Structure to design on (412 residues):
């Protein structure tokens, strides 16, 4: 018996290069889950193979800004000239239908989500060590030393944000990290703050 | 990788008759756990088949009171003329060695444990409905109507305590309840309040 029927908003975040996407995909490959992934909105160009409404909602800058103005974005940010963000409507609908909605987003966006939906479950994906993450950032693409240093500096700032999260999950093995996240989701459903209301109702039923 | 090596103190409690003992035993039958059960101390007579140091530590009232006076009891209470309680020393030792220490205790004792060890994980086992619990209490032994009513009144007071717990786990199916408790233990190990310290150490390692 699940005491509460509403789904959880699960925010998976962490420093760039830590493997958030890989962990999220492993999570979705697990059996018997009721997870749904929130598709982001972006103004960047669609790349070959991408599907509108699946990989992203591809919109014009004008439309994106209209969504911001109307308070329809749960979080958004501008990277390299393009907007990226999370539309709110679909999320509420999915949560109400009992699905766990997973967001895989940057640290900056995660802070915005927590402010708007304080009931969300904030999970920080951490690397096994700082060095391991630096190595991954250095190997990415063929960037200049300056770009690499900027990335490392950004990761260092992002590390500091871990303290604002509910959970820290080390991405040592992707399957372990996914297992831990699944345990967190189950445990969160049993949290007194989420269940007390329906528990009291249950007690008063005949 | 486990960020924190110290075990958790897991308090399993709930109203009399809810099946705490059955859930606890199912938990210990699960594979791959690192749980240990804290043996209680009592002044009541040993029953046939019981083993000292396994079922209980059987001691005299004088010895029990000495333990209380020396601050060696994590919690204790007197039921029907006998003392029952949890000795502290062994628990600290087990937690330091990384074991999860499980206490299966009455609601009154659980409150004492929380006060002394606020880091513990408090789990309230709830019945699928009030009626289901009343039925169980009525069927127990061959008690008088007065005794049964006293038990029901006690259960009603105990229901109210659920709000002081971290989690509410409904004992609908014993194996489900045990599964949920195991998920709670895994999740609690990833809690930022428990992991942040070792996470920071990890970041500063070369």
């Amino acid at each position: 018996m699940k005491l509460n029927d509403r789904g959880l908003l699960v925010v998976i975040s962490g420093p760039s290069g830590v493997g958030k996407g890989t962990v999220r995909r492993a999570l979705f490959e697990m059996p018997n889950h009721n997870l749904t992934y929130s598709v982001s909105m972006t103004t960047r160009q669609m790349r070959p193979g991408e599907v509108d409404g699946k990989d992203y909602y591809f919109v014009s800058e004008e439309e994106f800004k209209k969504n911001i103005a109307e308070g329809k974005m749960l979080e958004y940010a501008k990277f390299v000239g393009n907007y990226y963000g999370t539309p709110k409507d679909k999320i509420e609908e999915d949560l109400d239908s009992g699905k766990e909605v997973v967001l895989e987003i940057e640290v900056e966006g995660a802070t915005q989500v927590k402010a708007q939906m304080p009931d969300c479950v904030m999970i920080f994906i951490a690397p096994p060590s700082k060095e391991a993450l630096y190595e991954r950032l250095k190997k990415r693409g063929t960037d200049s030393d300056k770009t690499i240093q900027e990335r490392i500096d950004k990761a260092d700032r992002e590390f500091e944000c871990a303290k604002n999260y509910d959970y820290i999950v080390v991405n040592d093995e992707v399957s372990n990290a996914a297992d831990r996240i699944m345990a967190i989701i189950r445990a969160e459903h049993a949290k007194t703050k989420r269940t007390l209301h329906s528990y009291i109702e249950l007690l008063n039923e005949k």
